[in-house]
Fold this sequence. Notes:
Helix content: 10-25%
Largest sheet: 5 strands, antiparallel
CATH superfamily: PAS domain
CATH class: Alpha Beta
Order of helices and strands: EEHHEEEH
Number of domains: 1
Strand content: 25-35%
Number of helices: 3
Structural class: alpha+beta
Distance between the termini: 36 Å
Strand order of the largest sheet: 2-1-5-4-3
Amino acid sequence: MTCPLDLSYDGILLTDREGKVIICNRQFKEMFSLSGKLEGRYLHEILQDADIQQCYSMDFHDDLLTIDKKIINLEKRDVLHFNQEVRMYFSFQEVTHIKKLENLSCEAAPEGADCAVYL
């Protein structure tokens, strides 16, 4: 049976408040060439090259990061579970190709022209 999270194009995972992975989708594993069971491991140990731990204390985080030479739009939100326990939801969207197109577009634009920028 397919996990509903696998229907997303983005890498998605849910952790406890310390960053221990509860569940992740196939796209997250594929995005970072990971294999094996990730549940029970800490996200900041899985993605050691990214300073992911900095956003654990934030209720909301949305920023571009470079992880494994890929440009990732990381969105993190806190989730209240059964009105008591805070868990963290992470969405990883690879935008490397968009940023490359953006750079090419800006290089080709006449001097002084505005460029489209992915935020």
